[in-house]
Each structure stands twice: as C-alpha cells, then as structure tokens.
C-alpha cells in the first residue's frame, strides 16, 4: 500500500470510512475496532487500508500499529480522530510517535462536561452553572438552588443522548429514574468509561453520576475552528433548529450561514473560542464548539478537538464545495492553508434531519416526494427496508433515517418548514404488535 503518514483512529464504517476512502484512495490508514471486521460496508474496499484491533486496549493497539507501520516503512505518521470515544486513544498513540495531536490531559478535561464547565468558569467564560449528582435528592437540591429549569446530562456522553430538561420536581424524579436505569446499560460503551480527573487523579464513573446544570435559553449555534499560534480561524458556522417533537437537545436542522441575533458582534466568537480552547490546555488543533447566545453573550456548551458531525460536512460541501473532513486531515498533517478557503455562502442552505416515527422493523420507506421538491439539492438515507430501529432512551443514533439538504429561506417558519419536508417521507415501521406510519 502506498501510505501517506495519516492514521484515522476509531471511526465507524457508516460515517467516515467510505467517504475518505473514496476521496483519498490509498492515503489513509484506518484503525477500526475489531467488531467491524465483517461489516458489509467494508466488503468492497481494499483491506490493506484497515487495521483491526481492540480499541479498548492501548498496548495491543500500539503493538499492532508499530508492526503495520514497520511493514509500510512509515516512521512519522500523522493522527486524526472523528469520534469522541476514540480521542484519548488517538492522543496516546500520537504521543508515542511524537506526532502532533491535542494532549491527553486536555482531552480528559474536555470529555468531562463537569470539569470543562469548572475550567471555563474559572477562566471567566459564560457557561451554565453546573454540579454533579448521583441520586434524586442531590439532583433536586440543584433544582432548588438554581431556581430555574435544569438540564441533566451524562458526564461524558455525546449529542442529545440521555439529556433531559426538567421543569418541575416531578420531571426531575422521572428523568433521574431513566438516567439511573439507562446509565447501567451503558457501562461497556466506550463513551461511558470511567474518566480520570487530571487535576486530582480521582476517577469519575459516568455510569454512577451525572451533570446537573441550569437551563439556558436562546438560539443555539455550532462552529468549527482552527487554533494555531494563539490565533483562531473559523472554518464553519451553522445555526441549529431544535426538534421540539424529539427528546430534548435533538436537532431538527442546521442552517448555513447562521443568522445571529441583532446587536451580536461576531468578533466575540474569536475571543471566546480562543479562551475556551486554551483554558482547557489546548495549544493547537481543529475544534467543534456548540454555544448559545444569551443577551448577546456567548454561552459555551461543548467543545471537542474534532470536526463537526451529523449532516454538517455534507451541508458545507453542498453550499460551498468545501470538504470539511479533508480540511481536518490537512490540518492534522500540517498542510492546511486557511487563506485558501473560499468565502462563506451568500445564499442560505439547510440540512433537515429525518427521524423514524417508531421502533421496530422498517417495512416501507419512500422518499420520492422529497426528491421532487425543487429546492432539494441532496438526500441521504441511512436506513432501508428491513432495517430494525430503536428509539430513545435505549438508542439515540438509530432513530435517524437520514437528511435532506435544500436551499433555505430565512423568511420561512423553521419548525413548520422542517415538519413539511419530514412529512413528505413515507415510512412504515412494524414493532410486532402494530404499525407506525408517517
């Protein structure tokens, strides 16, 4: 194999592998967990671009990688990672080879939604007040202390998984009951492995405790940015449209470019992003950040040293022709030139997520009415007839059927517009007792 020194650690076949293999044939080595070795999505790809290993075992992975790089005569590999659960492994491997990658200590702080809140608070950044709880009584204490709605979320989860907004004491009790039940089921999920506090060396178990934070209202946004030599370059900006008919925190659509509130200074983003990344211990890298604008102030919600996911890469490519994933690889290889980026799109675009109406076996799936709409530019379906789907709180990723990308109009009502396009999708699901039709 003609291998350039770039290694992608711990991605999944249905997200990045096929995309990167298509765009970068022979240029990337993927370290995949052994559970994917017989995945049908990999069956038509050359096997010499994969290294299968137990990604829970650092020593085993390192030995396998060293053997592989020796065979390919690569001595100075670069490293990249698209998934939060593999960031620590990627960082440790990069450190061994003395390759550029965000530090393990910084990633440990970032992976804990509680520790990152504490760091940002001490740095003077605006972010939700937060604490840790392990039962109903502790959670209720925060509910009364904050004197407003609260949000419960796992210490180290991702996206909207097990995120609850509680409006009253009953909501707190019901959400805690679900949290306690579901966290136990995730004990062997890499996202929920115990996390070492790099400041105290104390280990926190995400399956035993959770974060309680104040609810912050306001429009939400997401960005990708690059940090280099104390300078921030914003690579991507999108607005978020929340899905009010899904679990709290679920995203119905992304809009590009975003529309910030009147009076908000976009220049504030550079200052906040720089301080948010550096206070966590980062000196360099590509980052995804989610934030809310409250009274024209940036409230940081989450930051991760990886590019944005979901439909964002496809949305950016349709709107601008830019490949966010390729840019990330170039950044990690030290080859990206931010000055070569084309300007942001002047026409608005959006990607609308299409959710399944119920759990069970998909018996019918027809997206022809969506494709007929003249504003639709692209449609990607991740499911097909015969696939089995599961809904939250058991599974949060499986419910997504796919998404469509279209030319947007900011004069439209965002919720009703998204529901209109979702309603054009014909889908039936059988759960063994009844059919769900949409």
Description:
- By secondary structure, the chain is of the alpha+beta class.
- Helices cover 29% and strands 27% of the residues.
- The strands form five sheets. An eight-stranded antiparallel beta sheet has the order 15-14-11-12-13-16-20-18, sandwiched between helices. The chain has a four-stranded parallel beta sheet with strand order 3-2-1-4, sandwiched between helices.
- Helix 6 packs across helix 7.
- It is globular and about 55 Å long.
- 40% of the residues are buried.
Quick structural overview:
It contains twelve helices and 22 strands.
Helix content: 25-40%
Our Rg estimate from Cα atoms comes to 22 Å
Could you say which structural class the secondary elements and strand pairing correspond to?
Answer: alpha+beta
Strand content: 25-35%
Assigned CATH superfamily of the largest domain: ATP-grasp fold, B domain
- Supply the number of helical segments: 12
Q: From the coordinates shown, what is the CATH architecture of the largest domain?
A: 2-Layer Sandwich
How would you describe the shape? Answer: globular
CATH top-level class of the largest domain: Alpha Beta
According to CATH, the fold-level topology of the largest domain is D-amino Acid Aminotransferase, Chain A, domain 1
> Residue ranges: pLDDT <50 for 5 or more in a row?
none
The overall pLDDT, averaged over residues, is 90
Number of folding domains?
3
Largest sheet: 8 strands, antiparallel
The neighbouring-strand order within the major sheet is 15-14-11-12-13-16-20-18
Q: What is the β-strand count?
A: 22
How far is the N terminus from the C terminus?
Answer: 47 Å
């Amino acid at each position: 194999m003609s291998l350039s020194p770039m290694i992608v650690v711990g991605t999944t076949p249905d997200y990045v592998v096929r995309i990167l293999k298509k765009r970068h044939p022979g240029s990337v080595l993927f370290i995949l967990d052994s559970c994917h070795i017989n995945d049908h999505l990999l069956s038509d790809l050359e096997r010499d671009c994969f290294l299968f290993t137990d990604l829970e075992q650092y020593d085993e992975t390192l030995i396998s990688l060293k053997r592989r790089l020796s065979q390919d005569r690569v001595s100075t590999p670069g490293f990249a990672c698209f998934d939060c659960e593999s960031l620590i492994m990627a960082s440790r491997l990069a450190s061994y080879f003395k390759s550029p990658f965000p530090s393990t200590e910084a990633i440990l702080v970032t992976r804990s939604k509680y520790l990152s809140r504490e760091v940002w608070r001490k740095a003077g950044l605006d972010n939700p007040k937060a604490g840790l709880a392990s039962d109903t009584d502790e959670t209720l204490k925060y509910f009364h202390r904050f004197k407003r709605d609260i949000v419960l979320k796992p210490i180290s989860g991702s996206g909207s998984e097990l995120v609850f907004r509680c409006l009253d004491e009953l909501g707190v009790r019901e959400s805690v009951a679900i949290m306690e039940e579901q966290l136990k089921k995730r004990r062997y999920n890499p996202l929920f492995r115990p996390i070492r506090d790099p400041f105290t060396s104390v280990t926190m178990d995400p399956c035993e405790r959770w974060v309680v934070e104040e609810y912050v209202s306001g429009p939400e946004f997401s960005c990708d940015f690059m940090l280099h030599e104390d300078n921030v370059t914003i690579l991507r900006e999108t607005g978020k449209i929340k899905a009010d008919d899904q679990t709290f925190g679920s995203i119905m659509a992304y809009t590009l470019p975003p529309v910030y509130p009147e009076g908000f200074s976009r220049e504030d983003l550079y200052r906040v992003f720089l301080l948010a990344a550096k206070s966590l211990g980062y000196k360099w890298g590509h980052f995804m950040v989610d934030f809310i604008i409250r009274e024209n102030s940036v409230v940081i919600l989450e930051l991760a040293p990886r590019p944005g996911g979901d439909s964002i890469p496809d949305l950016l490519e349709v709107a601008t022709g830019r490949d966010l994933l390729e840019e990330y690889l170039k950044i990690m290889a030290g080859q990206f030139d931010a000055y070569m980026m084309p300007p942001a799109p002047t026409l608005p675009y959006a990607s609308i997520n299409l959710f399944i109406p119920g759990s069970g076996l998909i018996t019918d799936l027809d997206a022809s009415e969506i494709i007929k709409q003249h504003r639709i530019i692209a449609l990607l379906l991740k499911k097909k007839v015969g696939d089995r789907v599961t809904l939250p709180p058991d599974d949060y990723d499986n419910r997504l059927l796919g998404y469509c990308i279209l030319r947007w109009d900011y004069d439209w009502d965002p919720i009703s517009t998204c529901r209109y396009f979702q309603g054009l999708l014909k889908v039936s699901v059988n759960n063994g007792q009844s059919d769900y039709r949409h």
